[in-house]
Amino acid sequence: METTSKVNRRWRLAARPVGLIKESDFALREEQVPTPKEGQVLIRNLYLSLDPTMRSWVSDVPTYFPPVPIGEVMWGTTIGVVEHSRNDQFREGTTVTGFLGWQDYALSNGEGLQALPHNAAIPLIAYFGLFGLVGITAYFGLLDIGRPQTGETLVVTAAAGAVGSLVGQIGKIKGCRVVGIAGSDEKCCWITDELGFDAAINYRTKHVLERLKQACPHGIDVHYENVGGRILDAALALINLRARIVLCGMISLYNNTRPEAGLYFLGSLIVKRARMEGFLVLDYLDRTQEALDDLMKWHAEGKLRYRVDVVEGLEQAPRAINKLFDGTNMGKLIVKV
Amino acid sequence: METTSKVNRRWRLAARPVGLIKESDFALREEQVPTPKEGQVLIRNLYLSLDPTMRSWVSDVPTYFPPVPIGEVMWGTTIGVVEHSRNDQFREGTTVTGFLGWQDYALSNGEGLQALPHNAAIPLIAYFGLFGLVGITAYFGLLDIGRPQTGETLVVTAAAGAVGSLVGQIGKIKGCRVVGIAGSDEKCCWITDELGFDAAINYRTKHVLERLKQACPHGIDVHYENVGGRILDAALALINLRARIVLCGMISLYNNTRPEAGLYFLGSLIVKRARMEGFLVLDYLDRTQEALDDLMKWHAEGKLRYRVDVVEGLEQAPRAINKLFDGTNMGKLIVKV
Predict the structure, then answer these.
(1) pLDDT tens-digit profile of A6-22?
(2) Which of A248, A269, A279 sits opposite B276 (nearest CB)?
(3) How near does any CA of chain A get to the CA of B207, in Å?
(4) What span, in angstroms and rounded, lies between the C-alpha atoms of B81 and B78?
(5) Which residues of B sit within 8 Å Cβ distance of A?
(6) Exposure class string for A14-39: b at 16+ Cβ within 10 A, else e
């Protein structure tokens, strides 16, 4: 660890992005590595999780968090190692995860910081790809809000993404017919051939509604939405009586500067007495263990796979995050700091 | 009754309307008054209920009913009197209500036909304006789907309409702050001054979102939607955590030939973990008495008022139905046959 550069590179928010994030919306500063005070620990970040919801944190539209202030180090969840500890709860060398930001080094007073278990069989990145927020999001969003029943048809959007790929596999475990919508033929192959989805649709091809109809001959009972816009509308056109639409995200809209074309089939919610419900994983953090128990079991049984997309270098973070929106990302997007 | 013309005027669907209904979409035929067979009754219609959902019945988009076939007598609920009976359950002279269509006379085998109670204190039109489907719709939509709590803020659209005006009053009975959105200053005065709404907004004025924000200083907990489109979007912008949006109708969209501008604030459902749920009164018909008991009690206590808008003459029906969509209707729209 002594060979590590003792400069702390920190990405600070420089401007509120309009549309897609530009590198100039952030400023990379080289600052001094801080020294922990009594009760604090200094963590060296190893991995930074990049998530679609980050786009909302930097806009000035109020969300579940206040916006990241201009000038502040960009927020983000990381996995790191305790380099210097003045807090009895975290020994030096401990691997931890926390909300530690886009930077090489972070100070923490231990609040919200969590030591990761020692388990040689589980690589660190699995705590981002499966046994972290994405897994908990997929688990509770599908099971608690979507409530799929055996034999029902489940449609998942951004199905080759970190959350979507897990949602579809959990749907299979629960006995659903699972149809994924993704942005390339390669992604479609991955989710059907390797993850066991029953069908996949590349939304960049023509006649998406027609193809979705063919893939869902008995209509849609549960729709897990990560994208929004046109794709959501196609699903609305095909929902069954008492369908449940889980709104987890709307990545197609986060970079919009004006409203989309409308949801032509929103009235289906009335005709089909259906429900569209938004949720945030933050509301389920106290039930994390419940999800992890099942996720670990299913993973051990070979029923649940994940994939990570690792970008090398903290300096790549602002460019890399757009992979979540331009369709070039598969699985969980992570920056190796 | 012998003086009644013995011609049966019947409005038959002539074409699928595009946009607003045109008179030429229907054809008024003069046909023979039919003679009931064994088990049937002949009903002379007195009143015909005109409802926004009728617009969906004549389109070719599938809804909860198959479309009215071209050439068929237009469907509708009426109140009438039994003129000739060959069915023991309905004596001649009995006042009944049923799904008897846009015509002077209808035959029925008694299925779905309901005798109205003799009660001199209740005028016949009250069975359309309050103690009928509109009352049951307002009651279960608000209480079962919206689940308002004392002290919460309830917003109702088409608030001077048949359903909306009842929803707001039931909201007041349940202890909510009630804000109505309607299409004229006259309507706004009616719902605040006579029906006791806390505030009303004329959506035809400017800055609807700003004014809705002022009228809902603590945000929106329950939104009862009859209109859809821009107004729904304004409400989405102001919903509170765990808000419930009741989708009862979307009259602003029924005559659209292309999608509306999108719901810019649909993402609020995620941020606020809110729920948007469609419902149809048809699912509650077996609980009708539960609603009627409360509606009659509240009406007797002077807490629940209704208004009817009576158009004279069956020949006016196709023109009159557009009053539901052009904003000129207040209260329950009824044709006096």
Answers:
(1) 899 999 999 999 888 99
(2) A269
(3) 17
(4) 10
(5) 56, 62-64, 228-229, 247-250, 253, 259-264, 266-280, 283
(6) beebeeebeeebbebeeeebeebeee
pLDDT score at B118: 83
Q: What is the Cα–Cα distance from A19 to B175, expressed in whole angstroms? A: 43
What's the whole-model pTM score?
0.90
Interface touch B263/A259, C-beta < 8 Å: yes
Q: What is the pLDDT of residue B38?
A: 96
Average pLDDT, chain A: 93
| Of the candidates B145, B148, B142, B139, the residue with the CA atom closest to the CA atom of residue B220 | B148
With tokens 């309901």, the residue in question is B114
Q: Which three-class secondary structure string do you get for chain B?
A: CCCCCCEEEEEEECCCCCCCCCHHHEEEEEEECCCCCCCCEEEEEEEEECCCCHHHHCCCCCCCCCCCCCCCECCCCEEEEEEEECCCCCCCCCEEEECCCCECEEEECCCCCEECCCCCCCCCCHHHHCCCHHHHHHHHHHHHHHCCCCCCEEEEECCCEHHHHHHHHHHHHCCCEEEEEECCHHHHHHHHHHCCCCEEEECCCCCHHHHHHHHCCCCEEEEEECCCCHHHHHHHCCEEEEEEEEECCCCCCCCCCCCCECCCCCCHHHHCCCEEEECCHHHHHHHHHHHHHHHHHHHHCCCCCCCEEEEECHHHHHHHCCHHHHCCCCEEEEEEC
Q: What is the pLDDT of residue B29?
A: 96
Domains in chain B (CATH in brackets) are: 7-129+307-336 (3.90.180.10), 133-282 (3.40.50.720)
Residue B256 pLDDT exceeds 80 = no
Chain A residue with minimal CA distance to B62? A271
Q: Which two tokens stand for residue B14?
A: 């002539």
How crowded is residue B329: how many other Cβ atoms within 10 Å of its Cβ? 23
The complex's ipTM works out to: 0.89
Residues of A in contact with B236 (CB under 8 A): none
Please tell me whether residue A299 adopts helix, strand or coil conformation.
helix
Q: Which of A64, A253, A275 sits opposite B275 (nearest CB)?
A: A275
Q: What is the pLDDT of residue B327?
A: 83
Whether the CB-CB separation of A26 and A11 falls below 8 Å is answered with: yes
B256 close to B228: Cβ distance less than 8 angstroms: no
Q: What are B290-313's pLDDT values in tens digits?
A: 999 999 999 999 999 999 999 999
pLDDT for A288 equals 93
Q: pLDDT digits over A110-156, tens only?
A: 999 999 988 878 899 999 999 999 999 999 999 999 999 999 999 99
